[in-house]
């Protein structure tokens, strides 16, 4: 079989991912969306090692059609085997969304014919889902501007299987199918039409992404297709139209705006709104087909899958083992004693580095150094050099003790401020990431690279004297007072010649002392 794979290139990472939320709010604050109602249907790929009803691996980096079982291809005689881990992840999601969890749920067949669905139906939970009647609360910091707090109702959360991936050959009418994605476990989260502006819909999806990633339910990445969003839009109580397969937060915002305008224009022209399925190409809305109803999908209970029965014990344990949720962590990080600004707190959360920060914070506080320094280091220095997607390696490779030792060394002037910058520039952190078998302490690496600050005043004085002698013409300008700022140049040269191992303040004091001894008039210019 000939296969073509479409590759997406990831864009530059935005460290303060939540800052976009405030931008969405400010961008739309002056717009009026009277009569607008939006609901969303979100498909999230569960982060499991195997598929929903087979033992095939869930890998999207593999060769096309390399992880495919008989059941994935719907070969006659193959039987479904339910992935228990997928059920547990669905339970975690439902619990965090305050859903009512049903001890008895069932699987149904949703019939439709398409090349990437070899069985001719999708296994889902239409009639009896695993959970329903939940809510996710939005606050102003999440990116809503019209209300202080907004609860988005979750009408249903159901488990279902993913389809294959269609790949279209450029300049040809050929389509190729990669079945690696077929039967990947999903949860579909369906909301009530509680969102009345585009930014409320965007804020909901974004917060759900962060929540699911925090829980380990899903990566929630648009780029890889781990999250796909459909939006239902209606105006003034009219029929709803569905925009399918939105692939970014911006797509959600701009497609809702476009559909709202389309419906208003259609009504103003005296034409009725028909319930249709829409497409969005990044710029324009287009009608794809009339919207299907449940009768057209011919839902029936799946005869090969018995009811899914959950014990009270497993439901109780899921609730008891639920970690602190993002809202609670943000409240902790922005309050004393941490007192981080909102952007830093949200960045730590978005990359799953809150516990990492707490570990460094504790070590620094025990060393009588402000623990909140850890946040600046992680966000401004470390994340800037860690390759995208490898942030999860930080806690185990650049351990809290390693990074804390580095911060302590800088604060105690064991190494100079310039040297700390050189440590980053010389890729010591990358060294740890690339040499995960090296478990040496930070101090040993500092010694290896000869980064320890030097306290030998004789060596410092010799370097300072050489610098002044080599730049005698500039010395005259400094001594005469014509160019006093040139002292900074001398300091820089001392730090360069000393390979950053001298304290800048000590270097400046030594330079000024030598200038005063050699040129008494320099002392007068300093008064």
TrEMBL record:
Question: What is the main EC category here?
Answer: ligase
Where is each Asn/Gln amidotransferase domain found? 362-515
Kindly list the places in or outside the cell where this protein is found, as annotated in its UniProt entry.
Mitochondrion
Please name the GO terms of the biological process aspect recorded for this protein, alphabetically. Answer: glutaminyl-tRNAGln biosynthesis via transamidation; mitochondrial translation
Q: Which Pfam families match?
A: GatB_N, GatB_Yqey
Q: Which NCBIfam families match?
A: gatB (TIGR00133), PRK05477.1-2 (NF004012)
Q: How does it assemble?
A: Subunit of the heterotrimeric GatFAB amidotransferase (AdT) complex, composed of A, B and F subunits.
Q: What is this protein called?
A: Glutamyl-tRNA(Gln) amidotransferase subunit B, mitochondrial
Provide the species name.
Lipomyces starkeyi NRRL Y-11557
Gene that this polypeptide is encoded by: PET112
């Amino acid at each position: 079989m000939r296969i073509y794979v479409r590759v997406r290139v990831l864009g530059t990472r935005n460290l303060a991912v939540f800052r976009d939320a405030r931008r969405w709010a400010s961008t739309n604050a002056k717009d009026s969306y009277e009569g607008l109602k939006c609901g969303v249907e979100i498909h999230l790929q569960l982060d499991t090692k195997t598929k929903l009803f087979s033992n095939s691996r869930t890998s999207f980096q593999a060769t096309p059609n390399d992880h495919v079982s008989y059941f994935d291809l719907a070969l006659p005689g193959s039987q479904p085997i339910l992935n228990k881990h997928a059920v547990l992840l669905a339970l975690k999601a439902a619990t965090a969304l305050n859903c009512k969890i049903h001890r008895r749920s069932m699987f149904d067949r949703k019939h439709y014919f398409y090349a990437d669905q070899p069985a001719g139906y999708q296994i889902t939970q239409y009639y009896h889902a695993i959970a329903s009647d939940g809510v996710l609360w939005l606050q102003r910091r999440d990116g809503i501007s019209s209300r202080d707090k907004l609860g988005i109702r979750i009408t249903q959360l159901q488990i279902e299987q993913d389809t294959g991936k269609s790949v279209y050959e450029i300049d040809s009418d050929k389509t190729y199918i990669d079945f690696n994605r077929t039967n990947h476990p999903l949860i579909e989260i369906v909301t009530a039409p509680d969102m009345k502006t585009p930014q409320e819909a965007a804020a909901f999806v974004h917060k759900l992404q962060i929540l699911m990633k925090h829980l380990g339910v899903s990566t929630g990445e648009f780029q890889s297709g781990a999250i796909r969003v459909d939006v239902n839009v209606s105006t003034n109580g009219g029929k709803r139209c569905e925009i399918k397969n939105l692939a970014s937060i911006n797509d959600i915002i701009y497609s809702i705006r476009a559909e709202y305008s389309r419906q208003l224009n259609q009504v103003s022209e005296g034409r009725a709104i028909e319930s249709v399925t829409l497409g969005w190409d990044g710029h324009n809305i287009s009608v794809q087909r009339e919207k299907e109803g449940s009768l057209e999908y011919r839902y029936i209970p799946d005869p090969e899958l018995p009811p899914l029965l959950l014990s009270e014990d497993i439901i109780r344990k899921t609730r008891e083992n639920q970690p602190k949720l993002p809202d609670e962590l943000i409240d902790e990080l922005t309050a004393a004693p941490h007192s981080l600004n909102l952007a830093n707190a949200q960045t730590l959360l978005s990359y799953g580095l809150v516990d990492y920060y707490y570990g460094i914070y504790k070590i620094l506080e025990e060393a009588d150094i402000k623990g909140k320094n850890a946040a600046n280091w992680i966000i401004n220095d470390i994340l800037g050099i860690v390759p995208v997607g490898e942030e999860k390696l930080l806690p185990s490779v650049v351990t809290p003790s390693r990074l804390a030792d580095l911060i302590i060394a800088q604060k105690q002037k064991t190494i100079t401020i310039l040297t700390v910058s050189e440590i980053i520039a010389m890729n010591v952190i990358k060294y740890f990431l690339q040499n995960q078998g090296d478990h040496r302490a930070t101090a040993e690496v500092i010694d290896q690279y000869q980064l320890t600050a030097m306290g030998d005043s004789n060596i410092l004085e010799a370097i300072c004297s050489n610098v002044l002698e080599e730049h005698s013409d500039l010395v005259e300008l400094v001594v005469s007072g014509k160019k006093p700022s040139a002292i900074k140049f001398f300091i820089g040269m001392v730090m360069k010649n000393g390979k950053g191992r001298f304290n800048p303040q000590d270097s400046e004091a030594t330079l000024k002392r030598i200038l005063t001894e050699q040129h008494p008039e320099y002392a007068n210019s300093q008064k």
